[in-house]
Description:
The protein has about 200 residues and is α+β, with helices and mostly antiparallel strands. It has helices at about 20-25, 60-70, 80-85, 90-95, 145-175, 185-205; strands at about 25-30, 35, 45, 45-50, 50-55, 120-125. A four-stranded mixed sheet has the order 3-2-1-6. Strands 4-5 form a two-stranded antiparallel sheet. Strand 2 (about 35) and strand 3 form a beta hairpin. The mean pLDDT is about 80.
Amino acid sequence: MGISKQPPKLFPITKGLPCQLKWTHSTIYLTDGVSASCHRVQGDPMEVRNGELNFHNIPAKLEARRKMLKGEWPGRGCEHCKHIEVAGGKSDRQIHLKLENTTAPPELDTGEEIVEVTPRQVEVYWGNTCNQKCIYCAAHYSSQIQKEEKRAIESLQSREIVQEIIKFGISQHQLTKIIYLLALELEDRVLLETLWSSSKQSSRQ
């Protein structure tokens, strides 16, 4: 990540509902081909303009900035901050207005109503490879969460299959024993033994 040559300064826009992230920041999701102002809002398709990739001044972002200058919430995820502020809390929007070491776009030096600006912070998602499993994240952005979900699905499918095998064996062939030919987690073994016991009891009734 490059270091801005401009010294940090407070975000200059004061009218309407100023949001530093809307003007200053862009998160680029290469696997989806979209860009967003923060993690709370929906991403919008990037475009090629005059032979260059445009990810910061795409139509949806320009419209959102215009609405915020008028004091309107642009929606598409911005409700997160709106609801916090209505409840009397301090939102991400308000926190970032006075965040230190952030440089505002240079175009705002000439006027507060400019909506097409140069980004000062760019975050790029190359894929979902990540060694963390943040509680607010999802498999699409975290390979660790993706692995957990895959294991959970496989485990659920295995449990359902074994449950049907047990029921079929007891009801049709008076099955009296089940042999594990794979390594099972303790909780899975307990579950299968519980299913086995309950199936045997059901067959006697």
